[in-house]
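Field reference: "sequence" (input) and "structure" (output). Example, PhoH-like protein:
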Amino acid sequence: MARKLHRADEAHHRPETPHRRARVEVEFDEQTVLGALFGQFDTNLVQIENRLGVYISARGNRVLIEGPDDAVARARDVLKGMHQRLLSGQELDAGAVESLIAMSVEPTLEGIITGAPGGAPPIMIRTRKKTIIPRSPTQIEYMKALISHDVIFALGPAGTGKTYVAVAQAVAQLISGSVQRLILSRPAVEAGERLGFLPGDMKEKVDPYLRPLYDALYDCMPPEQVERRIASGEIEIAPIAFMRGRTLADAFVILDEAQNTTPAQMKMFLTRFGQNSRMVVCGDPKQVDLPGGVGASGLNDAVQRLEGVDGIATVRFNTADVVRHPIVGRIVEAYEGKDG
């Protein structure tokens, strides 16, 4: 039976300026994934309709898309990307669909998902537990920088994947043997809370600050491997103060929440760089939690000094790149609009 969607808010989505209309039919050869492709009660197709302002009807393995020609082209690319993602064994949830919709403004979407002409591999990061593909246009730039530069500054709001993608790339390189160690660090600065009076030894006191790094690790590697590699020293998770006096060679080093470093701490950290290493510095310049009187953020100071230096890349995310629930992007945008 043919499926046709009717939106109650049709007038709201009607373009204000004339567009050429188009009708495109997409046929999918592999029918076993069509249930997951369309989503329960066709929720994935509804999501594409509402976001792109098109009409979609499905009959068997054929999908008809109608609407403004540019929106129809984007919807077609999104459906192809979703289908390819399912064929490669990856999950397809509302967040993944939203990210493909966001990336459909880029002309390289199909190349990202299926691989560029000539057999070049698509942009992705493979870990033991999952394969990560870019979920926003800026993540495409970020993933490229992670394999082409020695030091990468990743700037932007929460939810854009700055730390998660960096940890995934670090895990992939550790598994492949291109680096011997993975070092994850962040400053032990409270974001409005006071944790210093908690009981326990040093590790128990600082672990709350480092928990997001553990979470990203466990999402990319089986827990027993994470624990074994931590015990062997292949993976080290420590506050930035523990980096002083060391040279970090043959290592993938990530500094998270870098906006909460002082300029002196940042200089100390960056000068730990050793042979065959890569450093990623992640932070949101608008969310500085340093106590009053400390001075400027080390992240802002470092970017001003080092942007444009050979071997150093700066990738800037914004609210459009938020890949968590769509409401997170709207919350970030509202706060940034209010606070400037």
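The CA atoms of residues 154 and 315 lie 5 Å apart.
The first strand starts at residue 3 and ends at 4.
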